[in-house]
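#dry-run=false #mode=assembly
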Amino acid sequence: MLELVWLIPALPLLGFLILVFGGKRIGEPNAGRLGAAMVGASFLVTVGVFFDLLSRHGEQRSFTRVLFTWLPSGGLKVNAAILADPLSITMALFVTGIGTLIHIYAIGYMHGDERFARFFVYMNLFVFSMLALILGDSFLTMFLGWEGVGACSYLLISFWFERDSAASAGKKAFVVNRVGDFGLMMAMFLIFSKAGSLTYANVFEFAKAGSFTRTAATAACLLLFVGAIGKSAQLPLYVWLPDAMEGPTPVSALIHAATMVTAGVYLMVRIHPLFLVASPNALHVVAWVGALTALFAATIACAQDDIKRVLAYSTMSQLGYMFLAVGVGANTAAIFHMVTHAFFKALMFLGAGSVIHGMHDEQNIKKMGNLRKWMPITFITYLVGWLAIAGIPPFAGFWSKDDILLAAYRDNKVLWLMALFTAILTAYYMSRQFFLVFFGKERFLHDAQTVAAIGPNDAHVRDHPHESPPTMWLPLVALAGLALVGGAINLPFNAKTEFLGKWLESVDLGGRPILAGGALKYGLAAVTVVLGLVGVAIAYNFWLRTNDARAQAALEPALLQRAYGVDGLYSAVIETPGRLLSAWLAFVFDRKIIDGAVNGLGLVVRFAGGKLRKLQTGYVRNYALGIAGGMVLLLAYALARAGIQ
Amino acid sequence: MNLVAATTSVPGAWYLAVAAVLFTIGAVGLLSRRNVLVMFMCVELMLNAVNLTFVTFARMLDDIGGQVLVFFTLVVAAAEVVVGLAIIVSIFRGRVEGATADSANILKG
Amino acid sequence: MVDWIVFVVGAVIAIAGALGVLAAKQPVHSAVLLVMTLFGVAVLFVSQEAHFLAAVQVIVYAGAIVVLFLFVIMLLGVDRSEDVRVETLKAQRQIAAVLGVLALAELVALSRFHFVLGTKSVAGAASEPGANVELIGKSVFTRYLYPFEITSVLLVIAVIGAVVLSRRIRTSEDVR
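#status=ok
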């Protein structure tokens, strides 16, 4: 089975190629079915590879398959090779697995879109790029995928490019990601100049041999972290993620929750051997950025009204948790949380998509309410997601978040407190959203006066919310199941139940055990659960029970609604000077100096041409005179040569 | 100059000189005459001068290649005359001012 | 001695004819004088054992090309002669004369030099046994077969070109 590992990225690529050339002809819904089938097949292969690896032990679990030499260029030789080890296969499992579910969901969600087939073109290309990112055996193959997912992200965010906001959101994502990519590229240059190779195995060998100076390793780690910040939407390069919600909801679920944004975390985990030789401050930076982002995003999420923006900030916050885990040396916990987060966040995004679908493209949670009556399946599945992210046992989120909190507690109490507070906020804002959407009054029903104003045949009046079609709710149910039991892959009771930890053992992840002393461990877990329930209770009190408008307004300060005004700050500090500079370049430098030089040159040529045209008399015999003159000169040359000899 | 064939005792250089004279007359005619047909004839003169040179060298160097080249020159000259005269006819047919090269000067800069 | 006489006669005929082409007022006269030059050159060919070329010279040049010239002269009108004494272009004649003198001097000077020679051509010696026609024929059909075939294509193209060029372009008026 291992020999077939190349099929994992090849199948989505094949789907991409078929759809890009024949997508329009295949049409709806077969284009979607094909796309989903390709990713699904890829998932089956991944499962096969997973079991094959599972049957091996130790070193045997890491398998590199070289496909061909990609770049043979002097000292730089890069193979297009696939690295199948527990880490990459874990990633590939949930990328293809959740990818399949989301593809199926998208068949329903994108129903009737005029660019239906193109959507799946991008989606398949995205899955391929993501698989190249995680399965590549070198920094460069990883970078190929890294840029590929960036491009797909751009294409998919601005999928509905007729909307200005979508088009500019796509651009924003791309530009902000470039900043991170710059760091990543610098890191690659540095690593290559030091280690002379970009293959993970060689670089880590080099690092283990102690050949990296501490400074170089630290610089490389921090530069790679800059790349990870950009891709995983951490402070301060997070601004693109909330705007990325302009894309279709399946995109938000696949890219901006479950897979692409986790690439940064994956990278950090992958380069763990580099962190070992770097200064410990590098990991501290990672931890602090993660914790700050988690807290920062969680506060913003408390005051957002757009159902998808809440989830976007929540995603940032959860990614912050993962970086915190990496920073405190709990890589297994980071991966664990990545997996469970992929389950429940994909679930919630798809649920939100289902709600938006059912509400006829209404995204404001203040205009929803009591949807449990209209959309029972969405309600039940969303309930599971809500409990999972709020950290209520036995749902998946509880186990992974608890691992991270435990590791943070052991490492740094301040970070732990920040993470703990974030946990309360998370429970609060998700409950707020949940209550506003599924409980309370049906705020979308218009009173008689409004109905009279907009007419009884308006879509908003005529159509009640409705449950989504099976292609949409089946993936929801599947994901709900995963979000419910996903925590079982790494139960912290004893070494035997830590399946994920054991599975990842063969990859060098640092291996600092998360297990603390039994009493402390259960105590801390109890604290988190209680605090999570407190968050739920606060939300219940203010948003469902009392429903006091004044108190609600106080809970949504304008500063948080505007997301601390960071967008404005960036536009003032970066965008405005940039605009001024480009205006100066365009209207002063370009017009006066560049154009002046070009025009001056043109004038010279025109003047010379005016003089030279006199030579063209139009008389054939004048031209013949020129030929005769040339002949005389040639003869003179021949004579001179003959004379010399 | 080495003289291999005993066909004539006149040294090749004399023939070359005659060819040079013919060539120069042709060139000067081309430059100074206005009638396109006469100019064309002058081109033929120059070609003949070259042919004479070729034949002379063929004798001097005892190499039939020179004569073969003249053969090809003749063919090309024939083709050239045919096309050239056709062009002249199509340009000057129906013109009152006569077939002078100077009357065709619309390419004046 | 006979060689010299033949050479001088041929040379004089050729040069006199050439001067005549240059000086004649009527194009018809130029054409007739061109024939004279061609005959003179043919004599010089014969004296250098190029019998085949001499024959072709007379047949193709005098027989075909000059006749073609005469046809065209008639087609365009014989009466339209230029005034040879007047030169319309400024300094054209003076420059032409200077260039002519220079070229002549250079060519004659070159003819006196000993040339650097490379290898002999592969066509073979001119003095081989066998008639001149035979020698040329052998070269043309063996060594120079491809160029020879290409010249035939060239001739076809020339014929087609001449037909196309001299065709009267039909205007809508002609059709009516």
